[in-house]
């Protein structure tokens, strides 16, 4: 079974609007971490935000927030006030358990921000 | 802040040649990971090292080998290159002291095999 599922291969959003990128995960381990990375066309992978399985509050980092719904096993990324520079590929990833080596990526969502 | 350094950034090789990719992790990061990302694909985990020892192995072909040195830098050695090895190769590093263990990625090495 897929550990991380991103069902939106591509999305469009108007500049200055908010957008939600979906991510669901699958694990039976009670301890895990969820990550979002941004990959612009230049290729580098940029760490955006982290949510731990025991965190009580949704993570926020500037214009990025993570809508963490543990019962649904979803960890959607919300980008507020989209900017043209947000156009990129976005990957959801999960570290499973306390084993920092087990790191799984989703297939990514390509976000296009329209002026 | 210091980031993960990878060299070279671009590499062109012919089939059956060998290639060596280098990775210098963020200072005080003790874990290094290698990923392969084909065109339009998500990163596929190849191998990881913790404190200079191999800690986990993913979908790394037998033609590839890697190691982590005493200064924590790592090298990925690729032999008998095939056209299908053309990809972006990422190195990432993290600290084993938690709680988040987020991986910080280098800029990648784009390998083209002709």
Q: Brief overview, please?
A:
The complex is a heterodimer of chains A (about 120) and B (about 110). Chain A has about 120 residues and is mainly beta.
Account of the protein in words:
The complex is a heterodimer of chains A (115) and B (114). Chain A has no helices and twelve strands. With 115 residues, chain A is mostly beta strands. In chain A, strands 2, 5, 6, 10, 11 and 12 form a six-stranded mixed sheet that branches. In chain A, strands 3-9-8-7 form a four-stranded antiparallel sheet, with no helix packed on it. In chain A, strand 7 and strand 8 (64-69) form a beta hairpin. The N and C termini of chain A lie far apart (38 Å). The mean pLDDT of chain A is 92. Chain B is mainly β and 114 residues long. In chain B, 0% of the residues lie in helices and 50% in strands. Chain B is built from no helices and eleven strands. The radius of gyration of chain B is 13 Å and the shape is globular. The model of chain B has no long low-confidence stretch (mean pLDDT 91).
List the helices and strands and how they pair.
The complex is a heterodimer of chains A (115) and B (114).
Chain A: E1 4-5, E2 10-14, E3 19-21, E4 24-25, E5 32-39, E6 46-52, E7 60-61, E8 64-69, E9 74-79, E10 88-96, E11 103-105, E12 109-114
Parallel strand pairs in A: 2-12
Antiparallel strand pairs in A: 1-4, 3-9, 5-6, 5-10, 7-8, 8-9, 10-11, 10-12
Chain B: E1 5-7, E2 10-13, E3 19-24, E4 31-37, E5 44-50, E6 53-57, E7 64-68, E8 74-78, E9 87-94, E10 104-105, E11 109-113
Parallel strand pairs in B: 2-11
Antiparallel strand pairs in B: 1-3, 3-8, 4-5, 4-9, 5-6, 7-8, 9-10, 9-11
């Amino acid at each position: 079974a897929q550990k991380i599922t991103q069902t939106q291969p591509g999305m469009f959003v108007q500049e200055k609007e908010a957008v939600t990128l979906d991510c669901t995960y699958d694990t039976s381990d009670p301890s895990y971490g969820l990550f979002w990375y941004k990959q612009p066309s230049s290729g580098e992978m940029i760490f955006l935000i982290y949510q731990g399985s025991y965190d009580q509050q949704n993570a926020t980092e500037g214009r990025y927030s993570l809508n963490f719904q543990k019962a649904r096993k979803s960890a959607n990324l919300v980008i507020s006030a989209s900017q043209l520079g947000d156009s990129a590929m976005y990957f959801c990833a999960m570290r499973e358990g306390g084993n920092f080596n087990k790191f799984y990526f989703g297939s990514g969502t390509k976000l296009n921000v329209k002026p | 802040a210091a980031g993960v350094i990878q060299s070279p950034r671009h590499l062109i090789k012919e089939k059956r040649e060998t290639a060596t990719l280098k990775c210098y992790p963020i200072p005080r990061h003790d874990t290094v990971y290698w990923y392969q990302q084909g065109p339009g694909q998500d990163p596929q985990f190849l191998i990881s090292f913790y404190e200079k020892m191999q800690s986990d192995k993913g979908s790394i072909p037998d033609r590839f080998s890697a190691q982590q040195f005493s200064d924590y830098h790592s090298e990925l050695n690729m032999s008998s290159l095939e056209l299908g090895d053309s990809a972006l190769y990422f190195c990432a590093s993290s600290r084993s002291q938690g709680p988040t263990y987020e991986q910080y990625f280098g800029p990648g090495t784009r390998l083209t095999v002709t």
